[in-house]
Amino acid sequence: MTAPPSTAAPLDLETMRACADRLLAEDAEMPSPDVLETLTLQLRGHLMLAVREMETAVTTQPEDSVARACALFCVGEARLRMSVQPGRSPSARTAHTQRLARSIRVLCDHYETKDYACPNGPERAAYLRMLLHFPGCRDCRAVDDSGQAIGSCEIGERLYEEYRRARRGSTAASSETSRRGAGHPSLLRGPAG
Which of 81, 100, 129, 143 is the most exposed place for a label (fewest CB within 10 A)? Predict the structure, then answer.
């Protein structure tokens, strides 16, 4: 059974980004407390719409896809940020609202791509590929009697190297490695028993 098509209007990414940029742009000035409160409410409203739309949209992706996992991770992070009560000091309130603005930016980035992939987050995507692979791979989880890792897995090693490259900012991580890791049978099952 497929989900019914969404009748909601597409997200207004331009408005959402403009709201976030009021706090995150390099030349952004810190708003007054009243303006900050208004921005916080606007960002929360934008996030509620974006979270609902992203959760619906990613259902078109395979359950084991990295794009889906990454988008849902960002949705979960946005939900967590919305659930947190800001501190009382002006700096704590500003930091809270900036975190909401960062979540808006990330969800807008995901929403803009056709497959909801992480366009500006190769490190996050590489990390999620590792998280999808390692728990289900017996070779990666193998330990000796003292608990020391002894497993050897070619796919796990490639995924870790891709993550290291992404952390260093290298674009050398190949899409072929990504495809091989994404299609590995251990990604399709839960942790081995």
Answer: 143
Q: Determine the structural domain holding residue 145 and report its residue range.
A: 122-188
Distances (CA, A) of 99 to 37, 58, 78, 181: 14, 23, 9, 31
C-alpha count within 13 angstroms, C-beta hemisphere, residue 5: 3
Question: Does residue 55 lie within any of the structural domains?
Answer: yes
In whole angstroms, how large is the CA radius of gyration of the chain?
Answer: 20
Do 86 and 27 fall within a single domain? yes
Return left, alpha or beta for 135; rule: phi > 0 is left, psi -120 to 50 is alpha, else beta. Answer: alpha
* Residues 105 and 19 reside in one and the same domain: yes
> For residue 100, what are its two tokens?
């909401």
Question: On the CB side of 93, how many CA atoms lie within 13 Å of its CA?
Answer: 15
Question: What pLDDT digit, counting tens, does each position of 123-162 carry?
Answer: 777 777 777 787 778 888 777 787 777 778 888 888 888 8
2 domain-assigned = no
Does one domain contain both 151 and 76? no
